[in-house]
Amino acid sequence: INVPPGAGKTTVLHDFAAWATARDRAIRGCFFGHSLGIAARSSNRLRKTLERVAPIRANADLMELGLEVHAEATLAMDYGVFKPGSRSDMWRADQFNVVQADGIFSDEKEPTWSAFGFDGGYLGNRLNIGLADDLEMKKYLGNPDVIQARREQYEDEMETRIEPGGLFALVGQRLHREDLYGYALSMGIKTLDDDGDYDIDEHTINEEPQKYVHIKFQAHYDEKCAGLKGPHHATTAVPY
Predict the structure, then answer these.
(1) How many CA atoms lie within 13 A of 126 on its CB side?
(2) Does pTM surpass 0.70?
(3) Residues 143, 59: contact at Cβ < 8 Å?
(4) Residues 6+ apart with CB under 8 A from 132
(5) How many other β-carbons are positioned within 10 Å of the β-carbon of residue 185?
(6) pLDDT digit string (tens) for 83-116?
(7) What DSSP letter does each residue of the chain carry, written as one string?
(8) Tens-place pLDDT, residues 16-55
(9) Which of 28, 29, 194, 214 is least crowded, fewest Cβ atoms below 10 Å from its Cβ?
(10) How far apart (Å, rounded) are the C-alpha atoms in residues 192 and 200?
């Protein structure tokens, strides 16, 4: 998913992860980032959302602008407690297990949610959902060796963790023609022919089917930007 900065993509990933957890407490998910610290911010934000027992109060300034309202409930109020009651149960910023619907833990060795970055070690978890947010940084895109190493780690230690039927979402802003987003769009699905050989190359922009579905949100839509005297970019412009 390619999204301009400030559009709320990180919040959307958080909300999706919260919804998926409430829907299936046995889920195994992971937040990926360009560093473990960045990825852990996302998992910790989700952890705090799941453990919250009092509704959030909206920011007064944003309320006045009509951009926020007070929350009426929490996930724990609507779907039951997620945070384990024992101190011995895993409930850390970078990985945590939620209480299952029957009050006990899943027998899976993987945590409910975890975090992983390019600077981390080997990732052995099997996952149902992988959410990769802002994996790229401009400082890495000028070195071909670093670009290649990050591509290999992306394929070998991130993509391969997803179980059949799972979801891997790569979300961010395009930074360079050689970035991971363009690389992912060049990937084709590897299929075997009758002789056990691959029908198409692992990476090809001209073959179908592609591995990823491309969802793009532009920074500006000319056809939706209109005022009485042409483009209207003021804060009073009608939203769309």
Answers:
(1) 6
(2) yes
(3) no
(4) 31, 32, 33, 158, 168, 169, 170, 171, 172
(5) 17
(6) 998 766 789 999 999 998 776 655 556 799 999 9
(7) -B--TTS-HHHHHHHHHHHHHHH-TT--EEEEESSHHHHHHHHHHHHHHHH--SPPPPPHHHHHTTS-------HHHHH---S-SSTTS-B-SSEE-PPPTTSS--S-SS-SEEEEETTS------EEEEEEE----GGGTT-HHHHHHHHHHIIIIIGGGEEEEEEEEEEB----TTSHHHHHHTBB---B-TTS-BSS-SB-SSSSSBSS---B--S--GGG--BTTB---STTSPP-
(8) 999 999 999 999 999 999 999 999 999 999 999 999 999 9
(9) 194
(10) 9
pLDDT of residue 33: 92
